[in-house]
Design goal:
Elements (H helix, E strand, L loop, with lengths): L1 H11 L6 E7 L7 E6 L3 H13 L1 H10 L25
Antiparallel strand pairs: 1-2
Helix pairs in contact: 1-3
């Protein structure tokens, strides 16, 4: 799953208007991968992820990598807003 993300997902995000800010691994959970993206609005976020999911190249990569079953056990989406103004990501 991590290899697919690093090799296939990362390069496709910008083409759908998805700004990737960071990718993080857990020191205690080897299978966990967390990434942070940024969008101008909720509407932009929804449209960008819909376009990514419908991308025929991504769908082909996903299908080929899941011939033995899904790579993800679960996925959590959190929509966050800055709580402190003036920081790097604000």
């Amino acid at each position: 799953m991590k290899a697919r993300f690093k090799n296939e997902v990362v390069k496709r995000l910008p083409t759908h208007g998805i700004e990737l800010l960071g990718v993080f691994e857990s020191a205690t959970e080897a299978a966990r991968l967390t990434y942070l993206t940024r969008f101008k609005s909720e509407d932009d976020r929804s449209k960008a992820w819909a376009a990514f999911g419908a991308d025929p190249d991504w769908r082909a990569v996903k299908a080929a990598s899941e011939v033995d079953g899904p790579l993800l056990k679960n996925q959590t989406v959190s929509v966050l807003s800055p709580a402190v103004a003036g920081l790097l990501l604000a």
